[in-house]
Amino acid sequence: MTELSERAVASRVPSLLDEKLKVLTRRDPLSVRPGASLQSCLELIRETGTADSVFVTDEAGHLKGVLTERDIFGRLVGPDVNLSQPVDACMIDHPFTLHLDEPVRHAIELMQTGRYRNVPLIDDDSILVGVVRPVDVLKYLAEAFPEELLNLPPRPHQLMDATEGA
For the whole model, what pTM was predicted? Predict the structure, then answer.
């Protein structure tokens, strides 16, 4: 990558980070109702194979809590765990959320703190509408710079003396 193209990329990054979260591809959250058993939450994660958090929502879709992978490994590992207890006993009440109209930068800041890998997104009615993960942000940025990323050598420190191939 030349110095000119590096500057062009660097100049575009701040504006991309200020785009609204609604531009990101987001995942549908795994959700259960209050009172669901921990066993049913673990089965839901195992069945889908796509998430590591379960969101607890009321009938209207308002977020009440979240059971994260950290909660599962920190509290639910061991021989004496009661998986029939309700998720409410182990979930994080009223987790931090972001609105679809907030900038991508806010999701990145939450992820950088190390406290959030799955950022719950809400709409104007405070309804849980999706989840953003680091991979979603990376895909968004990669799509913004396809030429720069696709033309990188296999090892970034490697410089090619001449072009290869036809």
Answer: 0.73
